[in-house]
Fold:
Amino acid sequence: MDMTEMIDYNTTLISHHDLQNSFFQLSREDPTQGFTFDASVYSGHTYPPDQIDDLQDDFILSNRLKLASHLASHIRNRMAEEKGYTATVGISTNKLLSKLVGNLHKPNSQTTLIPPYYSPTLDNDSDGESNVIKFLDGYDIGSIPSIGFVTAQKLRAFILSRPANFSTALVYGGTKENVSVRDIRLHSELIDSPAKLEEILSAPGMQKGIGRRVYELIRGFDDEEVKGARRVPGQVGVEDSYIKLDHLEQVMRELKDLSGSLLKRMRIDLMDYDDEDELDEKKDLEDVVVQKEQEKGMKWIAYPKTIRLTTRPRMPLNSDGTRTRSFKRTSHSASLPSWIFNVKEDIHVLADRLVKEVLIGMFRKLHPERQGWNLSLVNITVTNMIEVVGAGYDGETKSEMGRDISGMFKRQEDVLKDFRVIDDYNAPNHVEEEEVKVDYEVDTMPENEKGVYEDESDDEDELEDAIDQARDGQKCNICGATIPVFALSAHLRYHELDD
Structure:
């Protein structure tokens, strides 16, 4: 969550002569919306934990991070009080550092990475000056967000001069040999050479500039934009891993369990209420689902159109008894049946039907043989969301486009203006070569702005006849064929070319 604008605004409101009695304003328009706090201290944990905050190190940044920590605490408290949700938060100046520092104290807590932050330049790797460098140096390279498995493998192999050893257990384990951020940052060939990193990491399929990107990440620089929160998730999925899954009966049992969990998750994430005040505070997911099923005012806010089944087969044993490590997955997609959205039906009944009618067929397309396969992971995901708008269309975001018919009527003047035809009843029958536009106007506009099919008497029969005439088409004066109005111009061009 990017709160930069709100922090910027409140920074200008803080009185540095009375930091202990500060007020955080949540709305520019209403100065009474907000909360009181002590702006002289951080809220929650800090990294380093024992460092005395010296405002002289970075007065501006320190104040901004303190405001951010109190805002995060306020949001977490409201979530717990009103929704029963807990949250773990990291506070810093970019996504990379926020994600990592938030992992220090779990669950239900928050941590702020405090100044001093950076050395004067990106290429200055002087130790002891930056809390960012101290913080990142101890992490294994594979733990850094945005650095994937393949990239981390290549970096480990370069530092160790050989491939790193991994656990060969049935359930894939982590590396047995950690290579830290510090090992890479201070390596003699990499300390000041993004070009060398590019040479090591470049390969078909790798993003351009991967070397520079990694060079910046291990120094705490991340300019990736924080995306705004979505009204609904892009997809909802559940998965589980297995030591050994090699019988169809086991697969069906696991698919049913996963399907039940998926349907519960869908009803939590993709349903809302006309009156949210009716929802009691529930901390247990099962309780929330039960309550939602009992509510009369619940509605779907998005309908996923596609279901995807994904499996990860485990590689067979090698001749020496070892097993090659593989993350290759296979997947198959199909249309999600509409009966899945019947909230009056029990979740377990729907899950059983989903397995028998949809998922088992998808599974057999992935694994046609009845035995011989051994699965280490199964995933079920619904995606391709079609959002349903209940509060109108805002005219800006694609996500608000949906099935809100009242919103469509409100916008029809702008949407249909390029398709309106002004019919001149005194014009000759011959149709000139020009663009023909048709307007199916709905009676929601002021009297003086209505379309061509309205007359002064407001005779409904004449209006209906006019609409039918436009829909049924006009007769061509050349060949006598009846042509839809929108195609008449092209039809006349056909006659001209034929001549």
